[in-house]
Amino acid sequence: MLSKKSIITTTPESLGIVLEEVKDIYNVKSAERIFAKALKLADSENLKKLVLESQVNFFSKVREFKKLEFFCTQLIEIYTAQKDISNLAKCYLKLGIAYRSYGDYEQSIDFYRKALNSYRKINDNRGVAKMFINYGNLYKDKGEFNHALENYLKAKEIIEKLENDDLKFLVNQNLAQIYFLLNYDKKAHDLFQKDLDYFIKEKMFARAATSLSGIAEIQLKNEKPFRAKKTIKNAIHYWMKMEDKKGLGEAYAILGKAENMLQNPEEAIFYFLKSNENYEAVYQNHGSITALSLLGKTYLSLNDTETAVKYLRLAQSKAETIKASYEMLDVYDLLHQIYFKQNLMRKHIKH
Length: 351
Known about the structure:
mainly alpha; 0% strand; Serine Threonine Protein Phosphatase 5, Tetratricopeptide repeat; 4 domains; globular; 351 residues
């Protein structure tokens, strides 16, 4: 006679209830405990696929890109065998984002191309719009701002034809960031401010924090460090709620810049170190280069050239590894300033 235990099988619905717990959490260790429990229950290939999909969605949400890459690669094998073009496109896009965060643009573009072709094959206009946004992000990272703007505007044109699509929030924030970089500060500020109250009301924390970070950058540019400090602390509050290390890396860098403007270099150094620590935790090479450069610049302002060179050399090494020519210009300029200063000092000592 079969025991009661042996005839109990897991259904997609019962597994879904377990995986539902991951939906509203951002803590990696808590999520991994839930995934371990789910995998014990997953007694078929179909159920294991459900767990894999949940893992990919979670690690994409928290931007843990190495783990995302690991699980995405497994899913691609399954989707390829099933000829599931829609889900293949989503995986290719996520892998493209991961490789962009590492600074490996060739691999990123390769995955973006596969994703775009897949979305076009199934006439998914929303997916095509997302691809233009992601191409824009890649060009922005490379310092090719006009190309970035061109892709964001292509995305916006498609999104405006879609009804009530929340992609409009994403494209507006990306447009705001590129307008800021192209020195259209008012356009940028208006776009960041546009939906901020809605994001806060609807508890869209990542969107709210992104807008607040953008506003803080504009306030800094307009030499309003006290206001920028208050604004970016609100962004940090939201990024902490989500345990988003990339967001925190960016926010701490902005806070450090505000402290520098307020003539508090020791505080600035503290926040730049926190920025780098958060960026490194999620393999965000671009952010890490920025944080290291800011550390070098701050130590240079304190005339501690030895420590400045140490951080700038680290930034240079990272920038050269990922061929980040845009960031390298700033690093080389700072190193040149230091060597020029040191040569002047040597000449002065000789005389």
